[in-house]
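Section 5.1 Outputs to date
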Amino acid sequence: MSENADEIKIVLERIRLMPRTIQLNIGTFGSFTRDKLLDEIENKTEVGCLVTDMYMAYLRSFKEDVK
């Protein structure tokens, strides 16, 4: 699980760009509003760390595609 402060900042800023009305369903964890997702990431919960890890993996995949 990610605890890198820079990665958390990046993901928080990316999530803040989403519309307030968006809801994301995260498997068995349930549905999350944008603001609830921000809280989860800031509090480094299991869901917050999962979202951070997934988002960073997604962003890193672009770097690999460029190589």
